[in-house]
Every structure is written in C-alpha cells, then in structure tokens.
Amino acid sequence: MSALALHLISDPYPQNRDWGIAPMAERVLGRLQSWAWLSLTDTRWHAKRFVGKVRARLAEIQTLHDEEAIERWAQSRLMSRKYGLAHFDQVAECFAWTCLKSKQTLGIEPFDTQIRAAYSLIRQRAVELDTGEGKTLTAALAAIAAAQAGLRVHVITANDYLAQRDAVELAPLYRAMGFEVNSVLEATPIQQRPTLYQSPVVYCSNKTITFDYLRDRVIFAERLEPLRLGFDKWLGRGERSNLPGLMFAILDEVDSVLVDEARTPLVLSRTVEDPEHKIYVRQAVVMARMLEHGRDFIMHPVSKRPVLTEAGAKGLPDLVAQLEEPSIIWRSVWRTEEAMTQALYALYGLVCDVDYVVRDGKVMIVDENTGRTMADRSWEMGLHQMVEVKEGLEMTGSRETMARISYQLFFRRYLGLCGMSGTCRELSSEFFDIYGMPSLRVPPRNPSRRRALGTRLYRSSQERWQACLAAVEREVARRRPVLVGTKTVRESEMLSSLLSQNGIDHQVLNAKQDEGEALAIAAAGASGKVMIATNMAGRGTDIKLTDEARQAGGLHVIITEMHDNARVQRQLIGRCARQGDPGSWEAIFSADDPFFVQQGEGWSRLLSVLAVGQSWRGLRHGLAMLVVKWLQASVERQHRRTRMHLLESDLDRRNAMGFTGISE
Q1: Are residues 432 and 573 in the same domain?
Q2: Is the CB of residue 395 less than 8 Å from the CB of residue 285?
Q3: Which 3 state secondary structure label does DSSP give 432?
Q4: Helices marked H in 177-263
Q5: Do 147 and 153 touch, CB atoms closer than 8 A?
Q6: Tens digits of per-residue pLDDT, 410-462?
Q7: Residue 14 lies in a domain
Q8: How many domains are there within the chain?
Q9: Does pLDDT of 396 surpass 90?
Q10: I need a labelling partner for 211 at 20 to 30 A (CA). Which of 129, 321, 450, 454 fits?
C-alpha cells in the first residue's frame, strides 16, 4: 500500500501539516534541483511519449468488444487505486478511457496539448496554457485521474458561475467514468455542504472553499488533529465537518488565486450589534471632516493612506472636547489617532466606483484585480462602517473575527496542488518557493496570429481618451469587434459617456453589472461589437468570433490603463487571437495615469516629458517604455514582499498559538 494511501486512512481530516518555510538557501537550491529535474523529465520528448502512449491505448480500447471493454475498464480502475498517480502506463490507460468517454458523451476528443497539460497537472505543476486552449476539459482529465486514484478532488474556479457551469457541462463525462460531481456555491445552504463535499469531484470558488475550511477550524478548534478526530469518530461523538479534508486541488486561473488575491487574508467573522461602536464610528467621521488637508493631514502618494501632521495630532483633543457625548475610545490618545487615520482613509483614500460601489443600499468592495464586487467581504476595524456613514447609508453592525487565514497558508495544506493559467512564467519562482509547485509552459496547438500594434503614451488623460475613441472608430469601421479594458468602474463609465456622445453603440461590463458578465463576454465576438470591461471581467469565458468578425481581422483589444503587474495586461491581451484566430491589441496610456502618480509625482512629470503621443517609435518613446516597465516591476516586487510577509505572519501566529496549546 502506498504512503499516500496510509496517510489518507490514518488521518480522518487529511491535509498537509508541514507548514514551515525553508530558508532562502534551501529554496534557491531546491529551485535549481527542480529546474534540473524538469529539464530531464518534462521535455517535449517525454510529453510526446506520454501522448503517444495515450493514443495507442485509446486505439486498443476502441477495438475491444463490449464484454472485453467492461473487463478492461474495471481492471483499469482497480490498478489506478492500487498504484495511484505515479504509474506512467496506468495513468495513460486512465486518460485513454477518459478521451473515449469524452468523445461519446460530450462529442469532444481532447487535443494532444490538453492531454499533455493534464498529465503535468497530476504531477502537481503550475501549467501555462494559452487562453482558448481548453482548460475546462484539461481540468476534467486530471480530476478524473486523481479521483480514480482514490483522492477527493476540488476543482477551484474564479467564481460561482464558472463552478456551476463546468460541473453541469462535464457531468455526463464524470458519470460515464463512474464518478459523481457536484458544485458548492456561495448560495448553497450550509447544511447541504458536508454531503456535497463527499463527492469525488467538487467544483467551487476559492472563497467558498476557504471559508468552509475556516468554519471547520471554528467548529473543531484544537480537536482538528488526527488522533483526536480519530477518537471522536470511534466514539461517535463530535460535529460533522464541512470538508472531508484537503486532498487534491486543481486551480483554474492559478495566478489569480495564489498571487493576485493573496495579499489580503480571509477573515471569517460575525456581526455584533454594539451601540457604543456605532457612536464611535459616527463621531470619528464627524471629527475627520473637520480636519484640513495639508494642515492637519497629508495623503501618502503611493499607499493613499492619510498621515496626521504634528498640528493635526495636537488638535485632536480640542475636537473630542466639542463632542456632546464622546465615546470612551477617545480617552486614549493612541486610539484617537488610529481612529482618525481610519476615518480619513474612508473619506479621502477610498473612492466610490473605484474601490467600492454602492448597490441596493450596501457598500460592496471592488476587487482591484478582477473588477468584480466582493459581496461577502468587508473592511476591518470599523472602516466599512465609516464608508457607510460617508455614503449616508444605514450602518451595519461591527464585525468580530472568528478565524482567519491567508491563501498561501490554506493552499499549502493540500496534499496535492496544481493549477493552470495563461500567465504563469513570471511567477515560477514564487510558485515553487511557497507551494513547492514547479511551472512549465505547454505550447498552443495552432500558431498564434496575434498582432501587436504597440504602446502609445500621451501627456494627459484627455488626449488618451480621444486616442481611444479614434481607435474604436477605426476598428468599428472595419467591422471588427473591440474589447476596451479599463481598471476602474469610474473610467469605464467615463469612456462609455464619450462613446455615446459620438454615436458608437457599445456595452459596459463592470462591477455594477457583473451578474451576467460571462454571457456578455461570450457575445463580444460579433462583428462591430464594442465592449468596455473592467480588468478581467468574464475571465474564463471564451470570446467566440462570428465568421464575419473573423474575416474582418478578429477581436481587437485596447488597454487603457497601467496595471500593477504585467500579467493582468497579458491576460487582457490573451482575449484576442485564440486558437489560431486572427486578432490584435494596442495599449494607450497617459502620464497622469493613477499608477504613475502613485509612484511619485516626479515619475509622472518625467513620463510627461518623454510622452510622444501618436508615435510609438523613437528614442524618447523607448526611454518612456523602459521607465514604465521598471516601475511596474518595482511594484510587483513590493507585492511579492507583502505576500511573503503575510505568510510569515500567519506561520508566526500559528506557532505562537501552538505554544499555548491551541493549534490555530
């Protein structure tokens, strides 16, 4: 019996319990060893050999009579459970059966690139697979192989829509292979989740699975250990957990989950009605509005966080004295300054239609990486309530933290972890250092026909939007579909107004209309269609071109704002020219872009001097692009340090609580 099988039997809640971080020297050495091993075992020759083995087994299976096929399939399932995922021939046999059942049930036979990518997934790799190459079926190939080996598989997607869609579309294939598949959504009742998670394959979003794990931590606390759980199970006592453990996870859009969303910890909290807290919040906002920018506080240009000046700090006791019934919190000088900083940040640091939107009388945070609203999240330390007071809304109760965890620490707890994305190469070192997950790229099955029209830099936003208008008019005249990517809701609505004034029919997709984003994005490939979308709205959904649009030159993508990392821009570019289709992209920036301003006014002024507008050639433009790339790389390094610091803080907290006898 394999070591993995023994581990699963001995642990009622299987998960990886080795959570430390190796020293830097060990990480570098491990990275070199991984690179050398991949160079020997993950070559194009090895991939071609495995695909050839799968195709040969598939040809054999198709010649079998019904009784012979049933007997061979039963033997294949038995051998998969015996040998797991490490046996080359047995994995090829499982893949061959899956390819056959896929053709019979879905009418789709996996391509060689999908087979190669799925094989890399079960070997716990981060796979870069170009957009449009069929990640949905690739994940199913790997999930079936892992489930047949006896593992419960979680296929983790970007949102509930994709989780439900993929589970429903692939259900005939899973049933044909003898497995039940279910999806667990945010709206799924808590009482039903334990039963659904018992399925061999479960589709869910990253937030859903993480919060369900936190609920288990709250329920079991220090009893979530193998020996104690074993005794509870033997004695027939204790509550039922949501999850049966963390065995094998396949992450769709792995970079978005493990990197873009990993700078903020996930906090499981409950609402507590505290009248004193509401008084404190209202008074904090009232006092903050009395402070004057420049005299009492300044805003940090990069973090957008307020900083009290010496004069502002000295004047706080006078403001407190003016309150009719001051909260007891104001008795502490340190707490008073902290509350003022929070209130100032709510008033001047967080911007409506940029950092949040107001919908149905509620403040909903906007994810800066995806442009989607996060209805299940709220800011901590009274900040959310301060924003509600700022917007004149009814104040919700304060939030009491019950459990918290970072994405880094949570996903490290899976016994097997892998993922796919169209943009992995920039993150290979981080994936290996934090998750022990090597990265590789699977080339597309068709040569790319994507054309780059260059990057243009203008001095002002007004010039930039006029250039965007001209670019849209140019492509619409050619009857090509156009996708314009913006970073914020406000910018998308500003561009929408400009297009409307010039009589250009279009559709806007941002955090205010995110419910039908996948359906809207899927229809964006019609001839002459213009779509304005915030960041990566509709990510995970194919934009299928009509014949007329394909003949006109395919989808044209326009990037209008700088992002914190180059991957988000590559993801947006990847929307065009999929699967060998024609397509093109261009980037149109301005020197007063918020990204450049946040790095310091000096950089913005320098780029304003170097900006040459319509031209995207020449020495000045080349120097400007060097500055842009350097600034972007600098911010990416800063974000990586933040993610590492968050993971280290989580580990330190766990070690400190372990010293007191509490596991979490």
Answers
A1: no
A2: no
A3: helix
A4: 193-196, 206-220, 226-235, 254-255
A5: yes
A6: 998 999 999 999 888 888 888 888 888 888 899 988 888 999 998 999 999 99
A7: no
A8: 3
A9: no
A10: 129
Percentages helix, strand, coil for the chain (3-state, rounded to 5) are: 55, 15, 30
133 plus 211 within the same structural domain:
yes
Task: Check if the beta carbon of residue 509 is closer than 8 Å to that of residue 533.
Answer: yes
Regarding whether 143 and 36 lie in a shared domain, the answer is yes
Higher pLDDT pick, 514 / 45: 45
**Does residue 378 lie in a domain region?**
yes
Helix runs in 291-418, H state only:
310-321, 333-344, 383-390, 407-411
Nearest to 409 by CA among 243, 196, 655, 197: 655
The per-residue pLDDT for range 112-137, each reduced to its tens digit, is 999 999 999 999 999 999 888 889 99
Write down the residue that tokens 């493990």 correspond to.
Answer: 258
Query: Nearest 5°: phi and psi at 182?
Result: -140, 165
Confidence (pLDDT) at 251: 96
- Model confidence at 361, pLDDT cuts 50, 70, 90, reads confident
Indicate the average pLDDT of the chain.
84
What pLDDT shows up at residue 659? 42
Q: Which candidate, 267, 127, 138, 150, places its Cα nearest to that of 201? A: 150
CATH number at residue 320: 3.90.1440.10
CB-based contacts of 74, cutoff 8 Å, min separation 6? none
pLDDT at 372: 67
Q: Measured between alpha carbons, how far is 331 from 323 in angstroms, rounded to an integer? A: 13
* Same-domain status, 368 and 459: no
Q: Can you tell me the distance from the alpha carbon of 337 to that of 334, in angstroms, rounded to the nearest whole number?
A: 5
Q: Are residues 234 and 350 in the same domain?
A: no
In a domain, 658, yes or no: no
> Could you give the C-alpha distances from 48 to 44, 51, 52, 490, in angstroms and in order?
6, 5, 6, 49
Same domain, 143 and 225: yes
Range ranked top by mean pLDDT from 67-71, 247-251, 419-423: 247-251
DSSP-based three-state secondary structure for 127: strand
In single-letter form, the type of residue at position 103 comes to: K
- Spatial CB neighbours of 378, under 8 Å, sequence gap ≥ 6: 269, 365, 384, 396, 399
Per-residue pLDDT band for 233 (boundaries 50, 70, 90) equals low
Domain of 258, in residue numbers: 24-265+407-442
Q: Residues near 616 by Cβ (< 8 Å), separated by ≥ 6?
A: 454, 455, 456
414 with 464, same domain?
A: no
